[in-house]
Amino acid sequence: MQLTGAQALIKSLEQQGVDTVFGLPGGAILPVYDPLLDSSLRHILVRHEQGAGHMAEGYAQATGRPGVAMVTSGPGATNIVTPITNAHMDSTPLVVITGQVATASIGLDAFQECDITGITMGVTKHNFLVQSAHELPRAVAAAFHLATTGRPGPVLIDVPKDVAQSTMDWWYPATVDEYDLPGYRPTIELDEDDLDRAVALIAASRRPVLYVGGGTLKSRASAELLAFAERTRIPVVTTLMARGAFPDSHHQHLGMPGMHGTYAAVIAMQRSDLLLTLGARFDDRVTGRIASFAPDAKVVHVDIDRAEFGKIRRPDVALQTDVATALRAFDQAGARPQPLDDWWREIDEWRERYPLTYEEPEVDGPLRPQHVIQAIAETAESGTIVASGVGQHQMWAAQYWPFEEPNTWINSGGAGTMGFGVPAAIGAKVGRPDRTVWCIDGDGCFQMTAQELVTARSEGIPIKVAILNNAYLGMVRQWQEMFYDERYSEVYLSPDLPDYVKWAEAMGCVGLRATNVKEMADVIDEANAITDVPVVIDFRTDASEKVFPMVPAGASNDDIMVHPSQRGAR
Amino acid sequence: MTPPEPFLGDTVHTPVRHHILSVLVENKAGVLARIAGMFARRGFNIYSLAVAPAESDARFSRVTIVVDAESAPLEQIVGQLDKLVNVVAITDLSPQDALERELLLATVPVDDASRGRLLDLAAGAGASIVDVDGAALTVMLAGTPGACDALERSLESFPDVELHRTGRVALPRLGRTATHEE
Ligand SMILES: Cc1ncc(C[n+]2csc(CCOP(=O)(O)OP(=O)(O)O)c2C)c(N)n1
Ligand SMILES: [Mg+2]
Questions:
Q1: Closest to A144 measured CA to CA, from A95, A180, A99
Q2: Which residues of A touch B59 (CB under 8 A)?
Q3: Residues pairing with A160 in the sheet
Q4: Stretch A484-496: mean pLDDT
Q5: Which domain does B116 fall in, by range?
Q6: How far is A442 from chain B (nearest CA, A)?
Q7: CB atoms < 10 A from the CB of A227, how many?
């Protein structure tokens, strides 16, 4: 069967089981958009290529399947570099297809030429510049294989226009051997000696902590984690990337560790004698000053990526495998720590003394952002997916939303990309149309990518957006208040400009506003009742509210600052 | 993997703790950029780098990289290198297990007074004269990095020398083993 490269590309995507492509056409990718018309693929036309990338990420995080985005060359390609970087930092499987100028024009500064494989070399797991139509199926198959196996990540395929236009005899690689990846071996046998040493460290420990990172979700290891944790009674912390990997309601869950983690999670790690590290990477946001992080702890480090071993913290035992395999092996070996009653007594005291807290809002005063999040969560059906932007609202969402299931928390961790929330929520809803999807957004973040609500409305993707409108780039304001003598430099945004309700309406969405507690309850009910179009709620929140606990950047986790109302009690 | 003992380097150009990575890579466009970019991005230092088609198979090239094991732990460098999809195999040679050789070429302007001194120096260093004209000689030395260093230092007493070195290539010494990373 003779196909054009463009047809072969679309057919290859179908072959991979892709159902949705997020994108926006242009000159160099034009040939590929033509066969799209005859394909079963759903294409979602975004309003900015950054939106396509974040939607693909949201889709991937919500479904566990790779997200796919397609854009044109030059500015189309550069517009999607931020989401690619974001996916690289958070190990999200993504396949990004970019158009490229014709092979004969490459290197000649042709119209909309840009060296996108060069630009993205450092922020992709791998990328391909496809040289012939015959090679396209192989590139697509290899890209999906790379994106989804081992440590997942973004893979980019750059397709010159003439490659898309020329013809080929259709074929598709039948096995991995035909992918032509002689240097790629993602699966590794678990080393039995290392396993024995890990089991021995567990057996010796009196103050163990399960330090659960995003790799646990990637490995779909939540069931194994629950079984292992319950059998051993070891306390659990879930990082920002792992929220939902272990039920928040479980009494063994201490919450999130790190800069804005719970006191119990942060201090339990500090006092621990064994960190069972599962698909986590000792991010500086978790460790605080590394020299004083968990000084007495031995480290068992489970990761699929061996370059994580010793990158930040030297492990006592490194197990290069996926989290589910390691947990099953621990269980089979009957790994069990010393009795943990004393450890739990200490931890429970911390939990009791320093729970997450905030001051109740005044009746007609501004809303408390934490209260808004809790109010939404209380009325949300179980299994609701939550996306967020980056800033204070993100930290409050991570702290206060009760996560019970994996893949219900969609957020930008490693890169901290403002504007991630709205498009990621849209992508999540496309991947999980059966679920309610809320985006907890900041006013600053919302302004970066809000135009994708036009996409959501026109494509029939009814997400709900809660803007925690504090009229500030709040997280930066918090740092300026606390560490720059309240000298506020370029952080004020205004609560009324733009008018979020009118803006929502102009984009075909329902726009609502709440300025006090009574209105808050009403608009949440109203939003819950709307299931056919996107809803945006402008929640007017207190600008002076800060995220606590907090470990200042570069400080030791021992110097954690609790909520002002809890100070002095220590 | 336990890193081999630190090696006290024998040359001015190599760090006290260096390692030689012999890296088999796919012979594809941009592979060298991927390697160099990764080293730059991660702050790993490269002391020298030599590339040539691989002995046995045209699909592959062999890159010999001398890395500074002070700038980052060797396991980190090898681990990050191994993540590059085009990297097929990495052989880690510690200097005491390696046979290292390098090529030096130098064009040295001479007059009647200095010609003899240069010829003596070259003979003493085991270098050969590979090009001659009335005003200059080109000297070649294939030797250990230390021998190349020594010759380079000696040539500093001549004005306007144009000197090039290839960076080293290496193989395990007979009877010694290298650490293979597939
Ligand atoms: C693209 C981008 N630019 C800048 C920043 C730095 N930054 C981090 S949080 C933040 C403020 C976010 O403001 P908003 O969305 O209103 O959230 P809030 O903190 O007020 O909840 C800024 C500017 C960033 N993370 N991403
Ligand atoms: Mg704000």
A1: A95
A2: 182
A3: A100
A4: 98
A5: 100-170
A6: 32
A7: 14
Q: CATH topology for A369-540?
A: Rossmann fold (3.40.50)
Q: Are residues B106 and B127 in the same domain?
A: yes
Q: How far apart are CA A131 and CA B115, in angstroms?
A: 54
- β-pair partners for A410: A387
Side chain identity at residue B179, one-letter code = T
The residue whose CA has the least distance to atom 9 of ligand 1 is A391
Sorting pLDDT into bands at 50, 70 and 90, what band is A570? Answer: very low
Superfamily of domain A2-179: Thiamin diphosphate (ThDP)-binding fold, Pyr/PP domains (3.40.50.970)
Tokens at A85, concatenated: 């970087």
Give the pair of three-digit tokens for residue A486.
Answer: 């309240």
Phi, psi for residue A102 in degrees, rounded to 5: -60, 150
Q: Is residue B107 part of a domain?
A: yes
Ligand nearest to the CA of A475: 1
Residue that terminates a domain, selected from B72, B98, B124: B98
Compute the CA torsion angle A381, A387, A391, A392 (nearest 10 deg): 10
B87 and B127, same domain (yes or no)? no
Ligand nearest to the CA of A396: 1
**Whether A558 contacts A292, CB under 8 Å:** yes
CB-based contact A310 B76, cutoff 8 Å? yes
Active centre residues of A (catalytic): 49, 111-112, 161, 475
Task: Determine the pLDDT at residue B2.
Answer: 41
Query: Could you tell me the fold of the domain covering A192-353?
Result: Rossmann fold (3.40.50)
Is A369 touching ligand 1 by the criterion CB < 6 Å?
no
**Residue B26 located in a structural domain:** yes
End-to-end CA distance of chain A: give it in Å, rounded.
75
Q: Any idea where the domains of chain A sit in the sequence? A: 2-179, 192-353, 369-540
What pTM was estimated for this model as a whole? Answer: 0.95
CB distance A183–B88 less than 8 Å? yes
Query: Which CATH number is B54's domain given?
Result: 3.30.70.260
Supply the residue whose CA is at minimum distance from atom 1 of ligand 1: A418
Q: Closest ligand 1 atom to the C-alpha of A442?
A: 15
Q: Decide if B58 touches A, using CB distance below 8 A.
A: no
For residue A185, which of A150, A140, A231 has the smallest C-alpha distance? Answer: A150
Are B80 and B151 members of one domain? no
Which ligand is in closest contact with the Cα of A476? 1
Residue B5, in any domain of the structure: no
What one-character-per-residue DSSP string does B92-110 give?
EE-GGGEEEEEEEEEEEE-
B76 lies in the same domain as B126: no
- Which chain A residues touch B if contact means CB-CB below 8 Å? 117-118, 121-122, 125-126, 129, 146, 181-185, 305-307, 309-311
A416 lines ligand 1 (CB under 6 A): yes
Among B85, B90, B91, B181, most A C-beta atoms within 10 A, so best to mutate, is: B85
Residue type at A346?
E
ipTM metric: 0.92
Q: How far apart are the first and last CA of chain B?
A: 14
Structural domains counted in chain B? 2
Which of A306, A313, A314 to mutate against chain B (most B CBs within 10 Å)?
Answer: A306
- Write out pLDDT tens, residues A281-313: 999 999 999 999 999 999 999 999 999 999 999
Mean pLDDT, chain A, integer:
97
H or E stretch at B62: strand B60-68
Alpha-carbon distance values, B177 to A11, B21, B96, B145 (Å): 48, 13, 11, 21
